[in-house]
Design goal:
Elements lengths: L5 H13 L3 H15 L5 H8 L3 H10 L1 H11 L1 H13 L4 H11 L1 H4 L19 H10 L2 H4 L5
Helix pairs in contact: 1-2, 1-4, 2-3, 2-5, 4-5
């Protein structure tokens, strides 16, 4: 007899914990994996698969590999989006620059430098009255009284 795969071992542990058939447990896990690929929340995944959220936690305590697999599948849309971005870069200069501005901010992001007249240092003077008023409104005691 062939050695059981990791997935088969996982399914057996879960079905024993739930007292359900291996076929039913396989169907539930397949639905969970399907929903995870859509990056749904764990609550949504469980609802779609027909199990409670607490049951999912019981399963993952007994078999942490299930949780790892679900989390990996939930990242699938992000990986696909990154791939799409990378593939679209050659299509336009703007795509390439947008990507670089996000990934290499220090090198490619647009910066604005403010200078005074004739490129000299910009001096900003704030009156003491305004400084005191700003200090009062930004104190922690006053923040709790401000409406949100």
């Amino acid at each position: 007899m062939a050695r059981p795969t990791k997935r088969e071992q996982t399914n057996k542990k879960i079905s024993e914990a739930m007292k359900i058939s291996e076929e039913e447990q396989e169907r539930i896990i397949e639905r969970m994996e399907e929903a995870a690929k859509w990056d749904w929340t764990l609550e949504e995944i469980c609802e779609y698969a027909g199990v409670s959220y607490s049951t999912y936690h019981i399963w993952t305590k007994k078999n942490p590999e299930l949780n790892k697999r679900i989390e990996m599948l939930r990242d699938d849309p992000v990986r696909k989006a990154k791939k799409t971005v990378a593939e679209k870069i050659p299509e336009s200069y703007q795509n390439a620059m947008d990507y670089l501005k996000r990934k290499r901010k220090t090198e490619f992001s647009e910066r604005q430098e403010l200078t005074g007249a004739d490129g000299k240092e910009l001096k900003i003077e704030i009156s003491q009255e305004i400084a005191n008023k700003n200090a009062l409104t930004s104190s922690p005691e006053n923040n709790s009284e401000r409406p949100s």
